[in-house]
Amino acid sequence: MNDPVVVAEDLETVLGGRRIWSGVSFAIAPRSFTVVLGPNGVGKSTLLKAILGLQPLSGGTLRVLGAAAGADRRRIGYVPQRGAFDESVRVRGLDVVRLGLDGTRWGVPLPGRARREERARIDEVVRLVEAEGYASRSIGKLSGGEQQRLIIAQALVRDPPLLLLDEPLDSLDLSAQASMAALVQRICRERGVAVVMVAHDVNPILPYLDEVIYLAGGTAVSGSPEAVITSETLSALYGTDVEVLRAADGRLVVVGQPEAPAFHTDRHHR
Amino acid sequence: MTAVAIASPFSFSFMVNALRAGTIVAVLAGALGWFMVLRRQTFVGHTLSLVGFPGAAGATLLGISPVVGYFAFCTGAAALVSALPTGGSARGFTEESAVVGSVQSLLLASGFLFVSLYAGNLGGLSSLLFGSFLGITARQVLALLAVALPAVVLLAALGRPLLFASVDPQVAGAAGVPVRAVSVAFPLLVLPPAAAQALTLRPAAGLLLSVGIGVGATWAGLLLAYYLPYPTGAFITTLSFAVYVIARIVRSIRHRRS
């Protein structure tokens, strides 16, 4: 049971005629918390889509849950980067969570034992993400952090061994970011789920992390945060002198990285 | 005391047919409309209900049954609106209303063109545009049932994937829901579902409530129109609108309490 959940060797992908990244290799252990870091437009979301099997690869081998990527997408929980639900979406949080369980099923749901068991599973994941207090309110009226917790509950309700989160901390304030990171770590440990999360800033999540995949300069390095987020490793990755400074409060600051591209491509395509 | 004898509305076949047709439409529209309001596609619904007009006018011009024209144009317009790119972004802004508006004005204009090309007497422009409730034959009720029944069954079968695709298209697509494939009498189509969504957050209860409000408003409107000298459509629309207004008031009172 300790085989890696994801094994990537020498991956390469091309999007719209442009090579996004190549030579990307990493392994993701069960129950681990991995974060994908890197500047805007470097292809972090594209990497998650490749693991899901939604982004074709032009090179390398990618094994996910012991099979080719995309072979069994139902065993992967996925939370894409998304704007908040509009206030006019008048559906309860509980119903949004339930869609993770039966949203792909045809026909009319019938009451009975199966339905009660589903209800118990939904209540359980809602408790796990600590959303009991607001899960029966209209999802559109909830705060960004509350919506994010319910969306994570939706992704977890089928008990997947792998959970992919695309920038779940985007648009949350700092304290909400830290409590979300603590929640994700608890999900890894208590539910035995391997989590791969795309993030912008490593600092709010640094205390909870196991592994880092750092994408930059068209390729990636992976390893423990202490090994990856160093002046030497990042300088080699960016191909220019980059300095990692540690502030007095323990925060890491990366100085001298090349300017981010003007376009954030992974925000504009679906 | 002289008793004024007014025959029971149920003794006339036109009234019975109107009630039958109204019930069928109210059930279908209540259920379909609930999803339409959730997906914010009420403008598309309005457009499709108008598109029957050029369809019927065109069919009459060609000397074929207006019913054929209704179906051809409504299906065609629905296909056109879902085929045209609407530029949906991850942030949820789309150009859908611009696309729908363009299709609507094109089709309305061709409807008026067909009417003027026909030059003869085209059985009342307003009944082509808005339909009429009180001239429905038993055959038309059967035709309506033949269309509505499969539609309701299909909607019941698609219900949950459609809800998933409406609330969360990206996740639904990744989970294997064919998002594109499941995407496809105006006051009944919008007001009862909008009222139901104001009253309850539960999808199943909302759907039933929407159907109930639609059927109730249709029956009450038809019976009022039987006794009072005003058009049926005005009563049905006004009653649906009244329920919608009450639902919004109830919602804001509840909101203030919580």
SSE topology:
The complex is a heterodimer of chains A (270) and B (258).
Chain A (H helix, E strand, L loop, with lengths): L5 E10 L2 E11 L4 E5 L6 H9 L6 E6 L2 E2 L7 E4 L13 H10 L10 H16 L15 H13 L5 E5 L7 H18 L2 E5 L12 E6 L2 E5 L1 H4 L2 H8 L4 E4 L5 E4 L15
Parallel strand pairs in A: 3-8, 3-9, 6-7, 7-8
Antiparallel strand pairs in A: 1-2, 1-4, 4-5, 9-10, 11-12
Chain B lengths: L12 H26 L3 H21 L3 H18 L12 H23 L6 H6 L7 H30 L1 H6 L4 H4 L3 H14 L3 H25 L4 H26 L1
Helix pairs in contact in B: 1-6, 1-9, 1-10, 2-3, 2-4, 9-10, 9-11, 10-11
Name of the top-level CATH class of chain A: Alpha Beta
Structural class of chain A: alpha/beta
Shape descriptor of chain A reads globular
Number of domains of chain A: 1
Most extensive interface, chain pair and sizes: A-B, 39 and 31 residues
Q: Stretches of chain B where pLDDT falls below 50 for ≥5 residues?
A: 88-93
Number of strands of chain A: 12
**Could you say which structural class the secondary elements and strand pairing of chain B correspond to?**
mainly alpha
Approximate shape of chain B: globular
Q: Share of helix among residues of chain A?
A: 25-40%
Please state the second-level CATH architecture of chain A.
3-Layer(aba) Sandwich
Can you write the helix and strand succession of chain B as a string? HHHHHHHHHHH
Distance between the termini of chain B: 55 Å
> Spans of chain A of 5+ residues with little confidence (pLDDT < 50)?
261-270
